[in-house]
Amino acid sequence: MSYRYFLALFPNAVERDQCARVVTGLQPLLALRGTCIDASKLHLTLHFLGRYENENAALETAVTTTCSWIEADRFTLTFDRASSLAARRAVAPCVLEPTVAPPALRAFADQLQAATGIARDQEFRPHVTWLHSRDRIAIPVNIAAMTWSCESFSLVRSAPDRYYRILRTWRLL
């Protein structure tokens, strides 16, 4: 097992509850097997920082220091479709995503990648994973639009027990 580190956007409580209601309705509508991800874990990964065998205090310190200097404006993000991502395993992530990602989101994700100096292992595709399923959403499905007000971002450590620990949060301007 390993520890995963990432920088993420989390919805506020109202947005999180709305998202949970939407995905709870989508699962039976789309006949997807599996258990929905706990609403407290719903997030959008801005930049994945890697997997490590143990907690990585040096990484935590370096990213905390770097992110303290980041300046970016707040923005809104609208999720308006559900789809499945390609999976390398039998179980695929079912996600909510924007039809069009706002330029501010892409610029912010690029800024974080450049600041941390940790390369991406795949192209940035903004999404919120809400289910891992053996079933797939064959064609993206339009959903009622949900808007997140992105006012902060967080450094997160995911432990082997899948517990998410928010190590630090920074406000956007």
Structure classification = alpha+beta
Write down the Rg: 16 Å
Average pLDDT, all residues: 95
Largest sheet: 4 strands, antiparallel
The side-by-side strand order for the widest beta sheet comes to 2-1-7-8
Uncertain ranges: none
The end-to-end span amounts to: 37 Å
Shape: globular
Tally the beta strands: 8
Helix content: 10-25%
Number of helices: 3
State the order of secondary-structure elements, H for helix, E for strand: EHEHEEHEEEE
* Share in β-strands: 35-45%
Sum this structure up briefly.
By secondary structure, this protein is an alpha+beta fold. The chain contains 3 helices and 8 strands, in the order E-H-E-H-E-E-H-E-E-E-E.
Record keyword descriptors for this entry:
four-stranded antiparallel sheet; 24% helix; 3 helices; alpha+beta; 173 residues
Describe the structure.
With 173 residues, the chain is an alpha+beta fold. It is built from three helices and eight strands, in the order βαβαββαββββ. It has a four-stranded antiparallel sheet with strand order 2-1-7-8, with helices on one face. The chain has a four-stranded antiparallel sheet with strand order 5-4-3-6, with helices on one face. The protein is globular. The mean pLDDT is 95.
